[in-house]
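We keep the chain:
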Amino acid sequence: MSSERPINPRFDDDMWFNQVSPGPPRYQTRTDKPVRYFTVVDKQGGAVLGYVWANDEDDAAAWEPRQAAGPRAMSEGSIWHARLEEAKGRGILPSQALAEMLANPEGNKGRALPGSLTDAPNAAAVEALAESN
């Protein structure tokens, strides 16, 4: 009787692992800490499309679409989201990204509302604002 065990053919092949890129750098999308945010309005009618918020302490920032604005808000969000990713890629703080966006307020169909930069207790408060009106 032989002491060798037969090799299971499933384990006889070499294994290959594909390295997956983590994707572009991104700010965190949640924080329970206070945030600063500004309002984005439609260039044509002035309706609120959504909000861009940021918090340096948690390295967090995101676009929050206004639910009542529907697909137009979701479409506009891609512009503001891309601007946040680009800022994170350059390694700047979320508050600096907000300042840059306010200095260059034009999006695709929307623009940052001048004088709308304000504070909220956390990201959930901005989310609630986007859902409520």
Notes: Residues 31-132 form one domain.
